Amino acid sequence: MILYLQQLQDVEDLCVDLDGQQCDFPADAGKIRSPIHLEAHVRKVGSEVTIAGRLSTQIEMLCARCLKPHKEILSDTFEVVYCTQPGLPENVDEVELDGGELDCYYYEGETISLLELVRDQLLLMIPVKPLCQPDCAGLCPSCGKNLNKGPCECVSQTVDPRLAVLEKLLQ
User: Fold this and answer.
1) Nearest to residue 35, comparing CAs of 51, 56, 50?
2) With contact defined as beta carbons under 8 Å apart, do 17 and 114 qualify?
């Protein structure tokens, strides 16, 4: 989806469903299983464009503990500001950015692609440690059995060698 800035009014509302395949979403982050719903309020002031809205979709990820695939609904609000690309001085290897420049997406020309925005916002919404259920027991470190399906028959008498001295005190 592309916003054409010359056709953009001062304030516009968007409501679109995007195909997850279009967003170039990384495969290792999960698989998008439903259309990405975008509701946004777009405001243009001079060359600065502010987009505030809500994204929602369903994604299939692997549980961080038991590696079972599970679906999770991602839904959150966002607000981003697009500014024109500043001209960089020639023959400069590094440019120092101030705080205001870090909070801004940059665009060139008269169009803004919303696919980059959608992909970035979805990546920010993914949980750091996705779980199939809050009390997921995970896998047995010895035999690899899924402990959510029941206990395993492994002998769990291994003692951390650093704590072996304390075990002698119990005897």
Assistant:
1) 56
2) no
Q: Which H or E run contains 146?
A: none
Total-model pTM: 0.76
Task: Tell me the CA distances in angstroms from 20 to 7, 15, 31, 84, 160, one per residue in order.
Answer: 26, 16, 8, 27, 46
H or E stretch covering 142:
none
pLDDT tens for the chain, residues 1 to 171: 787 877 777 788 889 998 888 888 888 888 999 999 999 999 988 888 999 999 999 999 999 999 999 999 999 999 999 988 766 666 677 777 776 666 788 888 888 888 888 999 999 999 999 999 999 999 988 888 999 998 888 876 667 778 778 877 777
Three-class secondary structure of residue 31 per DSSP: strand
